[in-house]
C-alpha cells in the first residue's frame, strides 16, 4: 500500500484540538500501562457520581465477567441533564429537524430536563419500576430521546427497536425482553411518507402478554386503533405529571439498556449495557473523537434505533452538555441537498454519517452540495462499514472543503462506543483506514488457530486483549451465548467478528466480517435471519443468503432459493418472496437478487459451501476453487448458467 496518500493534520486543526499527536501518544501509552489510573481520572473528570467506586475494573473473560467502577453510584439522566442546568440551562440540548424542511424545534437543557422528569413520572404512573424493560418503537422525534432519558431516570431498562422493523421483528424483541410497556408514535414520517407505527405495534402486541401499557406520541394525528385501558396518550401523561422527579440512584453496574443486534444464528442478540462504564466511554469518546468544544453544533445522522444513535446522538453528547441535532428525515428528501441544507441552516460544526449515505449522495453529483454554505463544518465522521477511498476523498474534498479531518470510527453495538479511530488533531489520515486504537484499547491480530500475528504489516482476525468501560456485560437472558460467541474462540480475548490488517506503519484497515454477518447500508444483518425468514414461506424448501459487493449499499443481499417440488419459479413468486422478507424482518432486509437454485452446493456431510456461492454472486466464476468435495458438482454448473442479470 505504498501508494496510499497521507493527509497530514492541518496545523489549525491541531492547534485547536483537545488532543494533538504528542498528547495522544503519551495518553494512549498511559491508558494501557495504567488503565486504572487513566479511567479513574476520566471518571472523575467526565461524570458526576453520588458515591465513588471501590474498584475500577475487574474481569475474567473466559467466565464472561466484566465490571467497571464497582460500588459507584450515579444516574445517567442526572449526568445528561441536571448537572448542566446551572451552567447551560438555556443552551440548546436537542435541535430537532423534522422531515419537513420548514419545521424544527429546539429543546434547551431546562426544557429537556423538565419534560424528561414529567415523562419519568408518567412512566411511574403506568407502573414502571426500576429494572422493568420498556420498549421504544419510535421515529426520530425528540420524544424518543426523552423516553430513553426518562427510563434512565427511574432505572427502567430501555430497548429501542428501530422504527423500520416489522411487527414480527418487534414481537420477537418484546417477547425476549418481557417488556412491560411500549412507547410508540401514531405514525412516523420519512421522505414525506407516513409509516403506521402504532398499527405495527398493535399487530405485534397480539402475542405479547407482558406488555401492559402502550404510550402513544402524537406525531401526525393520523387515525389509529385504540385499546381502552391499555393505550394512553403521551401528552395526557405529561399533562398530569409533575416536573419534579428525583432520580433513582443506580449502581455503576445496573443495566441501562438492551439493544438487539444480529449474530450468525437466526435469533437476534439482546446486547446489554450497564450504567457507569458505558456513560463514561460515551462521553470521553464523544469529546475526543469529534474534538467537541463547548458551543459546537454536533450532528450524528444515525437513527436512535441503532447503537450509534444511543451513544452519539443521546448519551455521549448530552453527558458533555453538547448541542445535539436529531434529524427525522432522509438524505434525499425533498432532494439530495437536504443534509447540506441542514448543515447550513443550523451551522453544524461536526457531522457524523455512514458511508452508504455518502456514496448515495456522491452519485447525485456535486451540484446539490455547491448551493449550500458548509463553512461551519470542522470535523467529519464515518461509521458502520468500511468507507471506500473514492467516497472518502469526495467527502473530504467536496463536503469538508479539504480542511476537515474525517474520523473513520470502528466499533459495534457490543462495544458501546468507538474503539478504533483517528483523532482530528492527532492522526494523519489515510482514506479507508480506521487508523489507531482509542484510549485504553489494546488490539491484536490472530490467525485461524488463535496465534497472534505480530509485526507490521500483518493481517488476521481482530481481537481485543482487555476490557474497556463501554463494553456490553451480557446477552440478555443468555449469558452462555455471550461467552460462546465472544470469548470462547480466542481464550482471554474478546472476538468482535471482524478481520483487519495492519499496514507497515501499524495503522489498521478493517477488512470486513469473518462470520455470517453482512452489512447492508450500514445495517448489520445475519444471513441466517434472512434465510430463516425465507424458509417460513410455503414455497421455499431451502435458502442460502450471501452478501455481495453493492455500489451504494456496500453489501447487497443475494439469495439462492430452492423451491418445494412442483412449485413454479415465476417473477411473481420472486416479488412475493421479497415482500415476505420485508414483512418478516423489515424493508432493510429486502433481497436485492433472488436466484432460483434447483440445488445448493453442499459437501458430502451436507454443509452449504458458501465460498462457492459468494464467487457465483460476484460473478467470479474463474475463482471457484476446488469443487471436488461437493456431493454433486453439477449444481454449480446450473447456478452459473442461470445467474440472473443484475
Ligand atoms: O463489521 C464492523 C462494521 O459494523 C459492525 C458492527 O455493526 P453494528 O453493531 O451494527 O454497529 C454499527 C455502528 C457502530 C462491525 O463489526 N463496522 C462498523 N464501523 C466500521 C465497520 N467496518 C469498517 N469500518 C468502520 N468504521
UniProtKB/TrEMBL annotation:
One GO cellular component term: cytosol
GO biological process, one term: acetyl-CoA biosynthetic process from acetate
Protein name, entry field: Acetyl-coenzyme A synthetase
Location of N6-acetyllysine modifications: 607
SUPFAM superfamilies assigned: Acetyl-CoA synthetase-like
HAMAP family listed in its UniProt record: Ac_CoA_synth
Domain AMP-dependent synthetase/ligase as annotated: residue spans: 82-472
Post-translational modification: Acetylated. Deacetylation by the SIR2-homolog deacetylase activates the enzyme.
Reaction catalysed by this enzyme: acetate + ATP + CoA = acetyl-CoA + AMP + diphosphate
Residue positions binding Mg(2+): 535, 537, 540
Obligatory cofactor(s): Mg(2+)
NCBIfam families tied to this protein: Ac_CoA_lig_AcsA (TIGR02188), PRK00174.1 (NF001208)
EC id: 6.2.1.1
Molecular function as annotated in GO: acetate-CoA ligase activity; AMP binding; ATP binding; metal ion binding
Function summary: Catalyzes the conversion of acetate into acetyl-CoA (AcCoA), an essential intermediate at the junction of anabolic and catabolic pathways. AcsA undergoes a two-step reaction. In the first half reaction, AcsA combines acetate with ATP to form acetyl-adenylate (AcAMP) intermediate. In the second half reaction, it can then transfer the acetyl group from AcAMP to the sulfhydryl group of CoA, forming the product AcCoA.
Keywords for the protein's UniProt record, in alphabetical order: Acetylation, ATP-binding, Ligase, Magnesium, Metal-binding, Nucleotide-binding
AMP-binding enzyme C-terminal domain mapped to chain residues: 529-607
UniProt binding sites for ATP: 384-386, 408-413, 498, 513, 524
Similarity-based family: Belongs to the ATP-dependent AMP-binding enzyme family.
Positions of CoA binding: 190-193, 308, 521, 582
Statement: the UniProt record of this protein carries the keyword Ligase: yes
Acetyl-coenzyme A synthetase N-terminal domain location: 24-80
Alphabetical list of InterPro entries matching this protein: Ac_CoA_lig, ACAS_N, AMP-bd_C, AMP-bd_C_sf, AMP-binding_CS, AMP-dep_synth/lig_dom, ANL_N_sf
